[in-house]
Amino acid sequence: MPGVLRLVKHLNAHKIPIVVATSSLRNNFKIKSSNNQELFSLFDDITCGDDPNVLNGKPAPDIFLAARAKAGNPPVSQCLVFEDALNGIQAARNAGMHVNPNLAALYPGDNGATEKKTIELFLAKLISSKKKSTYTSCYYHSLMEANKSR
After folding, report:
1. Domain residue spans in the chain?
2. Cα separation values, 108 from 2, 102, 128, Å
3. What does the alpha-carbon distance between residue 61 and residue 118 come to, in Å, rounded to a whole number?
4. Digit-coded pLDDT (tens) for 75-133
5. What is the CATH code of the structural domain delimited by 1-101?
6. What pTM did the predictor assign?
7. What is the DSSP-derived secondary structure letter of residue 78?
């Protein structure tokens, strides 16, 4: 995702807790992340799929709740998840967290068509909604609706 290193550096500099929650096993994650040490060294913690506090895989919320605990247990309403898989999006929602899906990773090769459709649907749903608390719900349902039209 463009701008990730800049965002992570900003959060780190401002002492905002930031953690990784990956379904990968710790040894696999170490191998996959070995070329990005600058980025991953800025995180407060990395929770992997083989963490003892992760009893169930995604879409269960376990991994996000375990990562949240390592970040000091902020209210779930203050947690933002960046996710590149549908099971992960659902897991974040199941944890009660806000989620920002990486649509380019979810739908490679569609030249942004799903992302464009999701944004159009999201804006329409958000504009028609009277409640601000529906942001995450509107986005998720827009993504699911756009996915159906593929």
Report:
1. 1-101, 107-150
2. 15, 10, 30
3. 24
4. 998 888 888 888 898 999 999 998 877 655 555 666 666 666 666 665 566 556 655 44
5. 3.40.50.1000
6. 0.69
7. G
